[in-house]
Amino acid sequence: MAEKIGVYFDMQNIGGGLDAEALAAQTREKWGELVSVVRVCPVLACSVEEIKADISAQGLDGVLLCGASPRAETDVYRLPAQVEFVNLREQCALSYKNPDGSLPDFSGGAPETLAIMARDYVNMGVVKLQKSQVPDSVAISGIRRILVIGGGIAGLTAATEAAATGYEVVLVEKSGQLGGAAVNIPVSSPLGPHWTDKQSVDLNAKISAVTSNAKIAVHLNTQMETLSGQPGEFKATISTPQGPVGVDVGAVILATGWKALDDKYLAPMGLGKLSQVMSAAEFGKMLLAGNVSARRIAFVLDTTLAEDVAREAVEGAADEAASEPETPATEGGAEKFVKEDLESIRHLAYSNAVNSVGMLRLANSVCEQTNDATQAFVLYKNMTVPGILERFYKKMQDRLGIMMTKADVTAIREAGGHLVVECKNTLLGMDFDLDVDLVVLPTGMVPTTAKDAVVRFDYRQGPDFPDLRLFDGFADSNYICFPYETRRTGVYAAGCVRQPMTMDACEEDARGAVLKAMQCIESASHGVAVHPRSGDASYPVFNFVRCTQCKRCTEECPFGALDDDEKGTPKPNPARCRRCGTCFGACPERVISFANYNIDQIGSMIREVAVPKDFKKEGPRILILACENDAYPALDMAGLRGRAWNPFVRIIPVRCLGSVNAIWVSDAMSKGFDGVMLLGCKYGDDYQCHFVKGSEICAKRKENIAETLNRLGVQPERVDQLEVAIDEYDKVPDLIDGFVDRIMDMGPNPFKGM
Amino acid sequence: MAQYTLKPDTSFTRELQEAGGENLKRCYQCATCAVACPFAPANAPYPRKEMVWASWGLKDKLMRDADLWLCHNCGNCSDLCPRGARPADTMAAARNMIYKELTEPSIVGKWMSKASGLPFLFFIPAVLWLVVWAIRASYKGHWFPRAADGRIVFGEIFYGDYTIDPIFMITFFGACFILYRGVRKLWSMFKPEGELLVIGPKKSWLCHLVAVLMDEVVTHRKFDDCEDGPITGKGAANRKFGHMVLVYSFAILAFVTAVVAAGHWGGKIIPAIEIHTPMPLTFPVKILANIGALLMLCGLAALTWRRLAQDRANHASGFYDWYLLSIIWLVAVTGILSQCFRLTDALKPAFVTYYFHLVFVWMLFAYLPWSKLGHFVYRTAALVYVRMYGRS
To answer: Does residue B3 lie in a domain region?
Structure first.
């Protein structure tokens, strides 16, 4: 609870003809003793020392800065008190237009509507601070030891790098030797500059760097048994040949790699049926052994043939399943975890880039060995060469014996001792047959997480990563900016378990994941969030007295942060938490809160808006709860670019739409708001949510809200959720205006003035 | 379903690379070149398709391709190629392969394809003219005889009626015959399998030939189109000027030769038109001849400068290019020098230079079907062909 608040107005950043002095006077008058200091500063950024002096002299515990958006210059105001911002620039003055849509004229001071809006925002800011506290610390000691699961190229690199940075490492490898898939690839695509030539992997050097390092403990023939606890103080149990061993670690790097796709998927292309058809991996081994005598080799990257057969099979199975009665559910319905096998033909397509690079390397090697007496035909649908490996592609392309074309490979058949590859739609401007002695097919890379629950979490939400089907089993979570993140905080995926990648990328990936793991341990030891609200010290606090053990929070947490006991009482793990607030959005009893973000706080802000009784004369009031990760910046950008929207809306940023509790909508409706707009990010398969599930969960809750509103006799259309991406600043004003128009057509909220 | 079976030939690709298309494998088929080319027809434009044929060693496809000759080698495509694959050089290399492979006897083509064949090429006329010299010298009793009036007269040694004229006539008509066969072969290669149907009015090949010569030789209009291609941002010396001046000088010198031949042989029947060589400097035909020689030097200088100033990253000049430029340089320089030596009465240098002049002129004409100069005939023939079938 901030009890002594200083309010500062930034003249430089408040435009629109707003009278800052009048705003200050209004604030002083309304809030009295709560606001012990109210100042109007010509340039706020120059008054930082003055504010600091006020804090120490007056004992302020909250500072409210009214001017630019909180996104604009937060760094300037690192003050020894709670700081809140009132966005009077981007989302008030700059985005203002008259209610009739005309452009405002500020020459005679701010229009009345704008002044009212500014006053509302300042009051909302004051009450927000009033209901906000400095969170208690949940810092833990943070064990500076990293568990690396998997001893392939990514795992070895991760272990070496983590040890080099001073962390202890426990490396767990399932098989009896280190190296993983690299054991069969002594020479790989380029691993470093100049990125033009294949390179020796030098696996033995990498392995001995790990085994000879005193900071790294290697466990061969070992798998994960369980992982419990939270980042900074995980408890891992590993099943070594000598029996289970408990290890305390701060963070986990998942580098369990991949398995080759079952040969059956490529049978339509002759794999396993014709002796001269083989997979790239097999061909690589043959080449190593010097057993390749074929002089005409087709490297076929177009796998449409196999994909078509697989698709037909799936469709056939679906028809069959539809016609047959459903098998009765297993008896007892005991919650025994069964891993769903996610291996599918799609892994072939995902592996296209790796296969493109790999086949170029193999084709080049065989041409090199025979001084271009071999003809290597590379038949691709998509030649995908990631990033700087373009340089490698160029070099390979220059090889005399390599001939490439985009082609639809329509058949591979045997004809008199050799194979015939039928090609259509080629770059050569004609359909043709190729006589070859050997056909090499790509290798599908199936992540180990598609087949097994590798980490075996001892979490309330189960031993596996959630929603892996969305990523066909890859341990990914769709974060473009945070590639190593999984849906389990403190567990970072690196290498081919995350995405099929070339060996150089595996090494880079491992380094990135190590950095994240270290950041995670350090954050836990400071008691702050690691991602994406890095440095946030708040965390959910439970008022267990009122908890009904409904389990909604433990089920809905996108990150499995909450465990529970037998009765269902939630057990928070702050270090697992990403501070999105999805738990308190879910809680029907409203027992969960953050010190500086809670139900009452936002509810009070909503109630602080002055809602006029006369809908016709003084206009409607519409509440926007805007996701602060996408929608809020989009609104800021719209304002900065002079895009205006209806002046009767009031915007409140929320951490995530997942944190929107139904009570806020009721608060708004009973206060007399005519509509509530939930403005969040896109959801679905290509979700953009920083917290994975937020807007999706919100959309589901909205249906329940609509039901409630219907019962109360309020049109459910008054509450709507709209999607906006961060770069859609040009569309967001129209979204708002469109919603306001719909509300205007509906007329006033029937509860208004009650 | 069985369809056309491709027979890629890596050795052909290697030959193309050696004949000037060394970067052809770099092509990744973006078709920037086909867009950049001001001549490429909208239907199946070049040189994109030629690049992939070259890369795959599809000799058949490439040799039968009339589009090779639509290209006038302006180099826009090479300037714009994002991969430095030099499509223009590859097209030129493919044409070089045609000079080499199309024309019999093919041994000459082999000699002509690289510098190591040069000694053979030089050896044949060098011996030929030395034998002529030796025979005449033994007859005259002196290797460097003067005329009765003390002047230097090349005819004393290289007597027109019995040496130069018959040898060059055999050479000239021999080359014509070889070229005729080459053109017939080229046309038959262009002809696609099955029947070609031409819709609309047809003109005889002679009409097309006249039109082609108008465009290509008289006006050099096609070169303007080349220069008017897309802006490549690369400075390129004007090609039209040098080429046109050189072609005109050839035309003048051909005309002069024809007049002198007519005067010489016709004079034996109608004495009134008789021309005696050497002609005095003020004689109109001589004046024209010297103007032709000077024009030739100008054209050569312009074209040589252009090649030297080209951006090495996008354009390479190969043996075929330098052979042709050098041989014309040598013809022009030895021709002018031998006249100078003759007029300044430097007896021995005059004869020696004149001997070399004859050697180089013979090389120029005798090897024309296998050299880059063959484009004069093959391109004309190809352009007539495509006009007859409406691809132009």
So the answer is: no
What ipTM was assigned to the predicted interfaces of this complex?
Answer: 0.86
Q: Which of A480, A493, A401 is nearest to A450 (CA)?
A: A493
**Tally of CB atoms within 10 A around A56:** 10
Is the overall model pTM greater than 0.90, yes or no? no
HEC string for B69-96: HHCCCCCHHHHHCCCCCCHHHHHHHHHH
CA distance A353 to chain B (A): 17
State whether A79 and A202 are in the same domain.
no
* Beta strand pairing call for A675-680 and A719-723: parallel
Which chain B residue has the Cα nearest residue A378?
B56
Query: A397 and B25: CB-CB below 8 Å?
Result: yes
Does some domain include residue B248?
yes
CA dihedral B171, B175, B181, B186 (to 10 degrees): 170
In whole angstroms, how large is the CA radius of gyration of chain B?
A: 23
Nearest to A405 among B4, B10, B52 (CB): B52
Number of H helices, E strands in chain A: 20, 32
Contacts of residue A505, Cβ cutoff 8 Å, sequence gap at least 6 = A386, A387
Q: DSSP letters along A72-107, please?
A: TSGGG---SSEEEEEE-IIIIITTB--TTSPPP--T
Distance CA(A266)–CA(A305), nearest Å, equals 9
- Spatial distance between the Cα atoms of B38 and B229, rounded to a whole number of angstroms: 5
Alpha carbons A594 and A82: distance in angstroms, whole number:
14
- For residue range B226-280, what is the model confidence (pLDDT) as tens digits? 777 666 666 666 788 899 999 999 999 999 999 998 888 888 888 888 888 788 8
Check residue A645 and report its DSSP letter: B
Residues B84 and B210 reside in one and the same domain: no
Are residues B193 and B271 both part of a single domain?
A: yes
B43: number of Cβ within 10 Å: 6
Non-local (6+) Cβ contacts of A494 within 8 A are A154, A155, A158, A253, A254, A255, A484, A506, A509, A510, A512, A513
What's the rounded Cα separation, in Å, for the pair B381 and B183? 6
Residue A661, helix vs strand vs coil: coil
Q: Tell me, yes or no, if A435 comes closer than 8 A to chain B by beta carbon.
A: yes
Taking the C-alpha atoms of residue A467 and residue A473, their distance in angstroms, rounded to an integer, is: 9
Q: Which residue of A has its CA nearest to B57?
A: A403
Tokens at residue A207, please?
Answer: 């392995």
d(CA A502, CA B28): 22
Q: How many domains is chain A partitioned into structurally?
A: 5
B219 shares a domain with B113: yes
**Residue A589: CATH number of its domain:** 3.30.70.20
Query: pLDDT digit string (tens) for B76-115?
Result: 899 899 999 999 999 999 999 988 888 888 899 999 888 9
Letter for the amino acid at A165? T
Cα–chain-centroid distance for residue A511? 19
Is A403's Cβ below 8 Å from some Cβ in B?
Answer: yes
In total, chain B counts a number of residues equal to 392
Q: Is residue B15 part of a domain?
A: yes
What's the pLDDT tens digit per position in B118-166? 999 999 999 999 999 999 999 888 899 888 888 888 888 888 788 888 8
Those residues whose C-beta lies under 8 Å from the C-beta of residue A243, and which sit 6 or more positions away, are none
Is residue A599 a contact partner of residue A664, using CB atoms and an 8 Å limit?
yes
What are A717's two structure tokens? 């259309």
> Over the stretch A68-107, which tens digit does the pLDDT of each residue have?
999 998 889 999 999 999 999 999 999 999 999 999 999 9
* Phi–psi pair at A548, nearest 5 degrees: -100, 10
| Whole-Å CA distances, A265 to A230, A261, A409, B169 | 40, 7, 16, 73
| Other Cβ atoms within 10 Å of A374 Cβ, number | 23
Longest dimension (CA), chain B: 85
Give how far A398 is from chain B: nearest CA, Å.
5
